[in-house]
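Protein modeling request. Please complete all fields; requests missing the sequence field cannot be processed.
Requester role: graduate student
Desired output: 3D structure, token encoding
Chains: 1
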Amino acid sequence: MQLIICSLMGHQTTVYEMLPKLGGMLRYGIPNYRLPKERLDEDINAILKTGVEVKYGLKIGEDITIQQLRSEYDAVLITIEQVQIRNLDWKAKMQTESSQQYSS
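Delivered output (104 residues):
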């Protein structure tokens, strides 16, 4: 929600996403029959149309440092997702999709 508000107020907003697609646990943790990925993509695309930029495949602390972000941007908001995957199939799916995206 903060992304939309900042973007609509005229602030350039950039998201650093370590996975190949946005959505986090909504995408990787909820089965498609409960939340169709097409519907999730519609919502994500609506957010992106407000001007939000996304940089995929970057881990903060590994690929880019907090210090780099602070020197590049006027403000930095870091949000994380608490992920506790009990079903190993979902964890394997996330890792497989992530590695397939970056290997090409």
